[in-house]
Amino acid sequence: MRKGISGSLAEIGTLLDIGIALSAEKEHDRVLEMIVTEARRVTGADAGTLYLCEESQLTFKIVQNETLKVFLGGQGEPVVNFPPVPMRLENVSAYAALKAECVNIADVYEAKEFDFSGPKRYDNMTGYRTKSMLVVPLKNHESEVIAVLQLINATDEQGEVIPFAPELEKVVSSLASQAAISLTNRGLLDSIQQLFHSFVEVMATAIDAQTPYNAHHTRRVAFLAEELGRAINKADRGIFADMVFDEERLEQLVMSAWLHDIGKIATPLSVMNKATRLGDRRELVLLRMDYIAALLRQEYFEKKMASLGKGDRFADEQLEAWWSETWRHWENVYELILYADNPSNRITDDKIAELRKVQLSEYIDREGKRQPWLTAAELEALCVIKGTLTNSERIQMEEHVQVTKRMLEKLPFPRKLEDVPIWASMHHEHLDGKGYPLGLAGESIPLEARILALVDVFDALTASDRPYKKAMPVDEALRIVGFMVKDGKLDGALLQIFQEQKVWEKVHP
Predict the structure, then answer these.
(1) In a designed cystine with 19, which of 138, 178, 245, 353 is the match (CB 3.0 to 4.6 A)?
(2) What is the CATH number of the domain that holds 459?
(3) Do the beta carbons of residue 416 and residue 246 sit within 8 Å?
(4) Are 253 and 402 in a shared domain?
(5) For 441-476, what is each residue's pLDDT tens digit?
(6) Domain for residue 201, yes or no?
(7) Integer Cα distance of 217 and 507 in angstroms
């Protein structure tokens, strides 16, 4: 009796150890391999096969045969040349899956209830002798069969093939239950992770879709960041020679890239989509200029009509001179506004002085009130030296990184992605401490944030989906990025690897 209790406790201990090992294993293929290996160990089976139920058929995932020294799937050779098993009741593994029942056969060559032509053909080809067989279904938490474990040729202590003892059915069934739980949990975790990644990509795509000038920016930044991380792994000299971006670190970097602009969801579209200095006020200003032109013409014709028949040649010449000067002034102002509104044109101090003079010109509106040709806000917009945004608009745009951080901090990132909110919100920090939002400098900026900063600038320069500017050639973009390195803004060591390994060429358009 004591021996029986001791044996039962040993079995329970073995099953618990296997369950713990299965739960701790992260690699899906390794879990599958462990199921077969441990089942063979506790039953003394010479061979074993694990099938997964996929699309109304059983697919070979693990094949082990100690006698033939065959170990396929998992960490071994991939399973090839093994066609899927159709879900027909005459196939013993399919029967176990369809009926959710264990099948224990002492000798397959004497069994009549199933079609064993497949194992027999395998025996003829290899010289192996398939005899005893134990087939066990693996059921998930909803009692659905997700896999089938097939064990072949139980052996005794002398290595002789024997039938699988009936009591082993319970042991293997218990192991199969633990294995099914592990597979299900792993599948659920993978599904949740895939759903999370897909959600992130959808959100990032939605942010980019808000503006026609940013259509694929996030995707390209994510690809560039990943490839630059992989390029660092290939570095055999310099400060990155011993640095490694493993898959988890790469995943966190790429996730940060996908989410780096998510805060733009709170940025007004009038700011995000501002392709010219006037932005959505451009049409209003041009319509006003047309209205002013009409007023000037009306004034001219009224004066012309008043002078008819008077025969005052000197007055007529003065009127024509006034009109010529007035119309030339209007044309110059119109051209100046069009020039200044185009962000590709440089705004010099002389241009700013000319624009300020325009604001001194006035017209009479429909209500009889005097109004300037350009409002103060319009003048400020046209005097923007770089880009299209005024100071207040630039502040609104720069706030997106803070919004990004606040939004991402509310998401329950798993431990392996816990730095995503930090890195994603630092892609505008500069090494000289003049970036934003925190004004960090030097080594206080994580390497991942420096990677994002570099590839974000490079993509902005080379992007071809922005109608307000042409795509900059790579050589020119690298030259500008090089100037930013010299100015102490971007990481020179990263740029060197970026250039040496031509990271941009590894990214699809």
Answers:
(1) 178
(2) 1.10.3210.10
(3) no
(4) yes
(5) 999 999 999 999 999 999 989 987 555 566 789 999
(6) no
(7) 12
Same domain, 240 and 307: no
CA distance linking residue 154 with residue 454, whole number of Å: 61
Q: Are strands 45-53 and 57-65 parallel, antiparallel or unpaired?
A: antiparallel
Integer angstrom CA distances of residue 21 from 182, 248, 366: 10, 22, 84
3 pLDDT more than 50: no
Q: Do the beta carbons of residue 450 and residue 489 sit within 8 Å?
A: no
Average of pLDDT values for 297-302?
A: 93
Say if residue 264 is in the same domain as residue 301.
no
Q: What is the DSSP string of 330-348?
A: HHHHHHHHHHHH-TTS---
Is 194 inside a domain boundary?
A: no
Name residues whose C-beta falls within 8 Å of residue 406's C-beta, 6 or more positions apart in sequence: 263
Cα dihedral sign, 346-349-354-359: positive
Total residue count of the chain as it appears in this document = 509
Same domain assignment for residues 329 and 472: no
Sign of the torsion formed by the C-alpha atoms of 152, 40, 73 and 144: positive
pTM for this one? Answer: 0.66
- Give the domain extent around 318: 277-388
Q: What is the 3-state secondary structure (H, E, C) of 264-290?
A: HHHCCHHHHCCCCCCHHHHHHHHHHHH
- Whether 133 and 180 map to the same domain: the answer is yes
Q: Return the number of other C-beta atoms located less than 10 Å from residue 498's C-beta.
A: 24
Quick one: 52 and 148 in the same domain? yes
Residue 204 lies in a domain: no
User: 231: closest CA among 501, 438, 507?
Assistant: 501
